[in-house]
Amino acid sequence: MNDALHLLRSHLEAALISQLTDVSTSALSYARDIVPYGDGRDGGHLRNCLSARVFHQGGCFTAAIEARNPHALYVELGTSCMRAQPYLRPALHAHRQYFLQALSSLPV
Questions:
Q1: DSSP conformation class of 29
Q2: CA distance 12 to 40
Q3: Taking a C-beta distance cutoff of 8 angstroms, is the pair 77, 66 a contact?
Q4: Are residues 88 and 28 in contact, defined by beta-carbon separation less than 8 angstroms?
Q5: Which residues pair with 66 in a beta bridge?
Q6: pLDDT digits (tens, 9 = 90+) for 69-93
Q7: Do residues 44 and 36 make contact, with C-beta atoms less than 8 angstroms apart?
């Protein structure tokens, strides 16, 4: 019985990781499409520093879209000298329903 439960858990975890990877990759693509390009001097550096990853830590699964660029947060939230130009939050909001559908489609 214990082996059967372990196998079921492994299959559910694999399905969850697959679903989260698919949806986070789609959200990443959306964010890359709408991220500001700037005046061209940066050559799309902010767009190119975006990445998605899914990981399992402490019993929790996490899908993350990350912007590994020092000015990424300032572009997303704005500053006292620059208006906000969100690209991560819109990607999350646009894909929220897909994340929920991915979770509800898991074989239980």
A1: H
A2: 45
A3: no
A4: no
A5: 51
A6: 888 999 999 999 999 999 999 999 9
A7: no
